[in-house]
Amino acid sequence: MKRAEKLEEFAGGMKAMAPLTVAVMPIGLVFGAVAASKGLSSLEVLLMSALVFAGGSQFVAMDIWKHPASWGALAFSALLVNIRHVLMSASIGTKMPAFSGPAKYAAMLLLADEIWAMAELRAERTRLTPAWYAGLAIPFYCVWVLASLAGSIVGALLGDPNVVGLDFAFPAVFTVLVMGFWKGRETGAVLAASALAAVLAHQLLPGAWYIAAGAAAGVVATLLTGRRREVCA
């Protein structure tokens, strides 16, 4: 692929991701403000967003953050939250024949829910290229890191995120992503099973087990609906 074509592909990925890149800004601001309220410096917030790059686990880490930090609890919670990345990377990895080995590994390092969803939708329609994927991931990553840093700096000015509604930005983004994959009653059944299991686990179990429970219930529901579809066929 020529340089001009790569630039065009990069711009296409960037354009496709633009709404979600804008949407992640308030989430990054909220995370930075929350992290600053827990005593993290702006440098620590910057490094956490740059090296972890996983909004869900970063928010969970802040929920259980205390001084001195319980590194075992933080690591286990992050593992529970991010275990879905195993399935996400396995899925998108089969759609990357145009990627070299190093390019594929780099793509997985920048994998996030929003990036995965957009890449999956692209792969359903046409060939997924490294340049287009880079257009998705690199600007999104940079905005997340910079928004987190900005949030840590001006956190005191933001006040309580619940008051201004910024706390809803995170679930709103995922609601939009889910609707992009809606396929009728089967999708509804999977979502209902996941939601019910997550709510029950959140009420009955401490920590972040509700995330694992929701994911497991979703997988089971997917398998059951898929088997039922095969039987009916």
Please name the defining characteristics of this protein.
mainly alpha; 13 helices; 233 residues
Tell me about this structure.
The structure is a single chain. This protein is mostly helical. The chain has two domains: 3-167, no CATH class; 182-227. Helix content is 80%, strand content 0%. It is built from 13 helices and no strands. It has helices spanning 3-37, 42-52, 55-63, 71-82, 84-93, 101-109, 113-125, 130-153, 155-158, 161-164, 169-180, 185-204, 209-232. Helix 1 (3-37) packs parallel to helix 3 and helix 3 runs antiparallel to helix 4 (71-82). The model has no long low-confidence stretch (mean pLDDT 82). The chain crosses the membrane at residues 16-36, 43-62, 68-87, 131-157, 163-182, 187-203, 209-226. Belongs to the AzlC family. It is a multi-pass membrane protein.
Give a brief rundown of this model:
By secondary structure, this protein is mostly helical. The protein has 13 helices and no strands. The N and C termini lie far apart (42 Å).
Q: State which percent range the strand residues make up.
A: under 5%
Radius of gyration: 19 Å
| Count of all domains | 2
* Count of alpha/pi helices: 13
Q: What general form does the structure show?
A: globular
The beta-strand count equals 0
Structural class call reads mainly alpha
Distance, first to last CA: 42 Å
Q: Biggest sheet, open or closed, and with what strands and sense?
A: none
**Helical coverage, percent range:** over 70%
Return the average pLDDT rounded to an integer.
82
Taking pLDDT < 50 over at least 5 consecutive residues as the criterion, the unreliable ranges are none
Keywords: Cell membrane, Membrane, Transmembrane, Transmembrane helix, Transport
Membrane topology: Multi-pass membrane protein
Protein name: 4-azaleucine resistance transporter AzlC
Pfam families: AzlC (PF03591)
